[in-house]
Amino acid sequence: MEFRIPSLQKILLSQNQFSGHLRLGDLHGEASLLDTLDLSSNKLQGPLPGSVFELQGLKILSLASNNFSGIIPLSAIQNLRNIFSLDLSHNQLSINANATNPSLPSFPNVTKLNLASCNLMIFPDFLKNQYRLVYLDLSNNNIHGEIPKWIWEARGLHHLNLAQNFLVEFEGPLQNITSTLTVLDLHGNQLQGKIPFFPQDATYLDYSNNNFSSDLPAEIGDYLNFAYFFSLSSNNFQGSIPSSICNSTYLQVLDLSNNSLSGGIPECLTHFSMSLGVLNLRRNNLSGVISDTFPQDCGLQTLDLNRNLLQGKVPKSLANCKMLEVLDLGDNQINDTFPCHLKNISRLRVVVLRANKFNGNIHCPEKSPWPMLQIIDLASNSFSGRLHQEFLLTWKAMQAVEDEAQSQLKHIYFEVLQLNPYYYQDAITVTIKGLELELLKILTVFTSIDISCNKFQGPIPEVIGTFKALYVLNLSHNAFTGSIPSFLGNLRQLESLDLSSNNFHGEIPLQLVNLNFLAFLNVSNNKLVGMIPTSTQLQSFSEASFENNAGLCGPPLNTECQLPPATKDNSSECGTGSHINWNVIAAETGFFFGFGIVITPLIFWKRWRIWYFKRIDRALIRLLPWLVLEVRKHGRRANWNQRRRL
Predict the structure, then answer these.
(1) What pLDDT, on the 0 to 100 scale, is given for residue 79?
(2) What domain count does the chain have?
(3) Going by fewer Cβ within 10 Å, which terminus of the chain is more open, N or C?
């Protein structure tokens, strides 16, 4: 990419598909009028030309999210005397924070500085004197050690992102700090001890994925008066959840997952869920029941209580949460029947009830819509009965295969503020190909049915053959009967199929060879018979996938298939290697003998020949009367010739 318009003042070409190397042409030098250069989010590559840092009039420089490479000394940036917004983030650049030019009076004062993913090793010293700085992003670097105290004393700083570094502690003491921060992101470091403070005006606070350990402060909610997003996920916090958390009336995302919190869920958390969009308390030690106080105008989009010690039933008032998309109550001690009262939540995409004490059938008396359902996990409960067609028919999302190019960009998330680019990414744990995996992004294209380890019975419903978007199907450890249906061959997207430990009988259908993406198969511990289909990917699976089926044979099993027994004859025992089929010989002999009885008299006996042809002529006249006309005109010879032409 090259520019040759000397009078050009602004270049705004972000979010395109430009590639190759950057050449400034006639734009560089002191005489350049260029004050804005934004080439972010393209595919530009190679080293940055030194002429970029000779643009003395440049005020805004954004080269983020490209593939630029090389080492940039801070002294080069010092040359940009008028710069106030600089973004070099998310390239393959390395910023040398120690290489400054002492001949220049000072580093230019900037309002926005984004050096994320620039291989920084330290906090640059020039930041101490940045009195205009409003936005600072040093995330995804290699900065070790402590967070300097002066960073909290920057009066105008509103946005600070130090995530994904190797920071271990705060330089203290931090008492009586009146920070102006509204966004503070410290996630993905190694910070430990107690949380030192919460900025009073913060709207976004992310302390997740650190080593903080302590009880949550009893007055924690009083520090979150304006917070929309608050995450303490994946730390070592203990104790109970303070009820003061409900004082955060603007809160839209509360994530306290992956800690060691105990006690009950504060009743007020479910009651004020009209503003709360995400409540994630998974992987703690919370006990008691889920309060049945969800309001009529419940705004929850994600409710994740997985892997706690919760008991009781699924609250009836949860049906008020019409916006609910992700419901994960898995790995608790909930004792209830299938929650049919949630059938009118049409936006549900993910339902996880696995490893509880649910029982009974899953057939709801009235129609169960759930047209957007893409993941359902009912494994390891005591559900029983048959799977009903009408219950599954409304799962439309499993029947439609989205355009792959579009679906790759779609995933389930929660938008914290419509005007700000802050999103909460939903995650879920699923069992795929026999392994428990955590999906950090739930793509809308991903679909899964896991009802293993229950007491379901009867045949597999035919409607499952229409789930052409299905990736995972696990029906193992139930009491399903009948043969493995051939319509499973219609599930062309299927990657994992587990039918093990049931009562299936008959042969493995040949249609399963149509599953080109199948990477995991288990049909062991059934009553299957016959040969495993040969010359297919089915034979690439291990012997364990087919074992304990007494009648199965062929690779990969060691059991060879028996050929049908051959007919024994004396000649083969004599070593002649030949075999006479007397049935064929008898038929041939009879044919030629009968043929000779009829033909021989016609040749050698004249009276027999005349009598024979008269009988033939009479029979033909009776069957084909129109031939009589030919007989009358031309006699018998003409009639015979006509018959021969026919």
Answers:
(1) 86
(2) 2
(3) C
